[in-house]
């Protein structure tokens, strides 16, 4: 072979294509105090700087050190990991829990351990990227069904030749903030002897009584054919992920989930922070309803439908238009999310505004002024 051609020159071609399509992503510097009103983060309950949560992280850090030092199966599992698991399980009404190093790893671990060659995985078209990747890694036959299409899920389950089947969905979809029809999906998995895996990343802390999640809200908690996954990085103001399921499922994951076995255990400080954040949420359950109330305020200001979650999407269509509007928001004191393909379908680039339980009246007034200006300028 041998050539003096740069083996990575194709990267420059792709970069030019992305630039022309308005799809370059940039890592903007972040400073501890930006002075911006935060409508971009997933710190839904406003707990990342809560003194109890910081103290929880520091106490764990002092006791256990900075790192977990290895897979929990190799260097041992701390009492704090076990407490976090039982506290989370108790909170959402599950029998048991298993903590992973991230929500991404929890989804990969759960799906690959519960599906495999010879099984079927049915996944909603709006499922999070981590569930999409889990499908790819599972080696199962994968059928992606149109968003929220119960008929398509039923047909896939009914017509399958495989004995085992999993149905995957987010409870609250991260881009549009809409809810999955979980009760109906559960009826289908029951009817067709399948298992429902529900990613509650955006549901815990927001939906259900005191933030127990949508599965709990709909009375599906504790059912063995419902496996809940979640991240600790949103409402719980930390880092990490968890699978909340029956003892039997969690034991199976300890033995077979590769992202549990071959990944370093969740860092002690993250465990301490998540436990403390859960403690705050238990003591102050009104925070969950406050997130929904603030999301309704933001939606009214932006002139879009009130969402059933913390996520307010203002669809602008063109990626460059969304990028420019997000930049204008920042220049005027608002940090907002800007979602473009491949995070969202073509033609639906948007501002993604996330509500926080502790947004103040003064902040809402600023949000109103800035959004009015930016959205009317963007429309012209
Ligand atoms: C729906 C959903 N699932 C999973 C994840 C991944 O969680 P983590 O960031 O903890 O890896 C995210 C985003 O972070 C998400 O939005």
UniProtKB/TrEMBL annotation:
Q: Which domain of life is it from?
A: Bacteria
Q: Which Pfam families would you find in this protein's record?
A: Aminotran_1_2 (PF00155)
Q: Which Gene3D superfamilies match?
A: Aspartate Aminotransferase, domain 1, Type I PLP-dependent aspartate aminotransferase-like (Major domain)
A Gene Ontology biological process in which this protein takes part is:
biotin biosynthetic process
According to its UniProt record, the EC number is 2.3.1.47
Which SUPFAM superfamilies does its entry note? PLP-dependent transferases
Q: Tell me the keywords, alphabetical order.
A: Acyltransferase, Biotin biosynthesis, Pyridoxal phosphate, Transferase
Q: In which pathway does it act?
A: Cofactor biosynthesis; biotin biosynthesis
- Give the catalysed reaction(s), semicolon-separated: 6-carboxyhexanoyl-[ACP] + L-alanine + H(+) = (8S)-8-amino-7-oxononanoate + holo-[ACP] + CO2
Q: Where is the Aminotransferase class I/classII large domain?
A: 36-366
**GO MF entries:** 8-amino-7-oxononanoate synthase activity; pyridoxal phosphate binding
Q: What cofactors does this protein use?
A: pyridoxal 5'-phosphate
Similarity field: Belongs to the class-II pyridoxal-phosphate-dependent aminotransferase family. BioF subfamily.
> Quaternary arrangement and interactors, per the entry?
Homodimer.
- List, alphabetically, the PANTHER family matched: 8-AMINO-7-OXONONANOATE SYNTHASE (PTHR13693:SF100), CLASS II AMINOTRANSFERASE/8-AMINO-7-OXONONANOATE SYNTHASE (PTHR13693)
Q: What is this protein called?
A: 8-amino-7-oxononanoate synthase
Source organism (scientific name): Antrihabitans stalagmiti
């Amino acid at each position: 072979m041998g050539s003096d051609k740069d083996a990575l020159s194709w990267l420059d071609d792709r970069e030019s294509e992305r630039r022309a399509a308005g799809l370059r992503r940039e890592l903007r510097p972040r400073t501890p105090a930006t002075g911006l009103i935060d409508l971009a983060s997933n710190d839904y309950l406003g707990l990342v700087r809560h003194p109890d949560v910081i103290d929880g992280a520091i106490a764990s850090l002092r006791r256990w050190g900075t790192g977990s030092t290895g897979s929990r199966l190799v260097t041992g599992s701390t009492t704090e990991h076990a407490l976090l698991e039982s506290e989370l399980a108790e909170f959402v009404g599950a029998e048991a829990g298993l903590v992973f190093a991230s929500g991404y790893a929890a989804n990969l671990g759960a799906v690959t351990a519960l599906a495999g060659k010879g099984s079927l995985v049915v996944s909603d078209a709006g499922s999070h990227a981590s569930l999409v990747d889990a499908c790819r890694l599972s080696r199962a036959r994968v059928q992606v069904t149109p968003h929220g299409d119960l008929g398509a899920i039923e047909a896939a389950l009914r017509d399958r030749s495989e004995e085992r089947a999993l149905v995957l969905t987010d409870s609250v979809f991260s881009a549009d903030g809409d809810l999955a029809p979980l009760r109906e999906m559960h009826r289908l998995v029951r009817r067709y002897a399948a298992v429902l895996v529900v990613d509650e990343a955006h549901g815990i802390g927001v939906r259900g009584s005191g933030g127990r999640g949508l599965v709990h809200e709909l009375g599906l908690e504790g059912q063995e054919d419902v496996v809940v996954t979640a991240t600790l990085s949103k409402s719980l103001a930390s880092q990490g992920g968890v699978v909340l399921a029956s003892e039997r499922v969690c034991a199976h994951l300890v033995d077979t989930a590769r992202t549990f076995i071959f990944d370093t255990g969740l860092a002690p400080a993250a465990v301490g922070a998540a436990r403390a954040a859960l403690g705050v949420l238990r003591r102050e359950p009104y925070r969950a309803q406050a997130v929904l109330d603030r999301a309704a305020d933001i939606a009214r200001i932006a002139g879009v439908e009130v969402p059933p979650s913390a996520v307010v999407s203002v669809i602008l269509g063109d990626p460059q238009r969304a990028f420019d509007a997000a930049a204008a928001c920042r220049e005027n004191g608002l940090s907002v999310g800007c979602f473009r393909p491949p995070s969202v379908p073509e033609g639906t680039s948007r501002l993604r505004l996330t509500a926080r339980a502790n947004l103040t009246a003064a902040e809402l007034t600023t949000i109103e002024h800035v959004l009015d200006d930016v959205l009317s300028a963007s429309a012209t």
